[in-house]
Every structure is written in C-alpha cells, then in structure tokens.
Amino acid sequence: MPAARTDSRSQLHFFPPRLCSLVFATSLSAQCWQNPTIQSNAAKPGAWSGILVSSACNADEAFNESPECTKSVPGPKLALYDDTNRVVYGLEPQDRVTAHLGEGVTVRGTRDNDTIQLASIELMSIGLAVGEKAPAFSARDQFGQMQTLDTLKGANGTVLLFFRSADW
User: Fold this and answer.
1) Which residues of 28-61 are buried (b: 16+ CB within 10 A; e: fewer)?
2) Is there a contact between 98 and 52 (Cβ–Cβ < 8 Å)?
3) Element (H, E) at 81
C-alpha cells in the first residue's frame, strides 16, 4: 500500500488518492495529491487525431460508435474523440473547425485540461488514394518469410490488408 508523504515546508501530510477516502473517513487532517502529469494545468502544445463528435457525446458512447455522437443537433459543439486514450476534447474556437461530424481529423494546437485551442485542423488520410502506387516495403509474413511488394504482386494486382489486432 502506498505510503503518505510529507511536505517538509508546511508539515502537511499528502496521501495518494486510494488512501484519501480512508484518511478522510477517519477524520485525519490531510490533503490528497494527484499525479502531477495528470493534474497539471499547464497548456501543452501538440497534435491529436480522432473523430469529430458532438460535445453532448461522452467517451463511452463515442467508443461504442453511438449514432447519437454523429447526429447534428442544435446546441452542442463539435468535439474530438481520441480513441487512443478514450477522451473527448472540446475544440475552441469552433469557427476554426472546418470538418464535419464523423470525420477523422488531426488537430494541432494547445491542450489546456480537456480543451484544445486550435491552431489547425486537417482531414485524416488513411491509406492510399485510388490509383496511387504503393511505396516499396518489406515485412515478415505469418510464417516468418520476408515479403516485398514485388514478391506479393499477382497477375491482376495486389490487395494488402493490415489488421491491427484488438489486443495490441
């Protein structure tokens, strides 16, 4: 079980969140501390990718691809659902959002808590466009044999499917 830590400057006792409810239940005077990487209020510049959803949609609904998340209704704003960490971020200013509900986008800007101040927004491009030539590559197949685009080419062309397993 994690131990309490003491701030030597003020002699306050700080307890991890799991112990906090126990500490307060026993009426001890203490403060709970949070992980500074999660709790930090400092704005963080970066890029985030995901799907544009209604701000009325929560992360569980977006994860389950609820039709309500991409339904246009008056009132709610557009938000970004980032499926890599299952978070819905608010987007500001809304007039800079040039994509539509349900579209995959990459946004760049500064994140402050759960809101991204937009610098730019681009539609996500996944895969090759129709007629575009595939780049040269090499990869091992399920049998451990090295394959290249040339070794996979057939008389009628090649179809490649990359599948990301759900348990990665």
Assistant:
1) eebeebeeeeeeeeeeeeeebebbbbbbebbbeb
2) no
3) strand 78-82
**The pair of three-digit structure tokens given for residue 35, joined into one six-digit string:** 């992980």
pTM of the predicted protein model? 0.55
125-154 core/surface letters (b: 16 or more CB in 10 A; e: else): eeeeeeeeeeeeeeeeeeeeeeeeeeeeee
What does the pLDDT look like over 129-166, one tens digit per residue? 778 888 888 888 889 999 998 888 888 877 777 666 66
Does CATH number 2.30.30 belong to domain 44-123?
A: no
**Domain coordinates in residue numbering, the chain:** 5-39, 44-123
Tokens of residue 73, six digits: 């209704």
- Residues belonging to the chain: 168
pLDDT in tens, 76-110: 899 999 988 899 999 999 988 877 888 999 999 99
Percent of the chain with pLDDT over 90: 31
